[in-house]
Design a protein that fits this description.
By secondary structure, the chain is mainly α. The protein has helices spanning 2-17, 49-60, 71-77, 87-94.
C-alpha cells in the first residue's frame, strides 16, 4: 500500500510541476455514465466524478481543491519535492551525443 501511495504521489507531483491540469486526469465521461447508458445493467446510472475525486485527493493527503500533494503528505512518505525531475531535466539526461556521419 505504501509503495503505491508513494508512486501515485510522485506522479501527481510531477504532473503538477509540469503544469498539467490535475482535474483533467480522470476517466472518460462515457465510462462514468455521462450521458447515462440507455441499455444494460448500468442503464440510467452515472458517477459524480468531481466530488469523488476531491474525496480521494483528501484521503490520500493531497489538497482537495487542486490535487497537489501537501507538504505533510510528502513528509509522511519521505518524498523530497526537489528530487522529482522536471521534463527538461529528463530530456537533458537522455540526450545521446550525435556522431558525425563522416566517422
Amino acid at each position: 500500500m505504501a509503495a503505491g501511495k508513494r508512486i501515485q504521489t510522485i506522479r501527481q507531483l510531477f504532473n503538477a510541476r509540469e503544469g498539467i491540469d490535475l482535474s483533467s486526469l480522470a476517466i472518460s465521461p462515457l465510462a462514468a455514465g455521462h450521458p447515462p447508458l440507455q441499455r444494460g445493467a448500468n442503464r440510467g446510472r452515472s458517477v459524480p466524478l468531481a466530488p469523488l475525486m476531491r474525496l480521494y485527493w483528501q484521503h490520500i493527503g493531497w489538497d482537495q481543491d487542486t490535487g497537489v500533494p501537501t507538504a505533510q503528505a510528502l513528509q509522511e512518505l519521505g518524498i523530497e519535492e526537489s528530487a522529482i525531475p522536471t521534463t527538461a531535466s529528463i530530456h537533458e539526461q537522455s540526450v545521446i551525443p550525435s556522431k558525425s556521419l563522416e566517422e
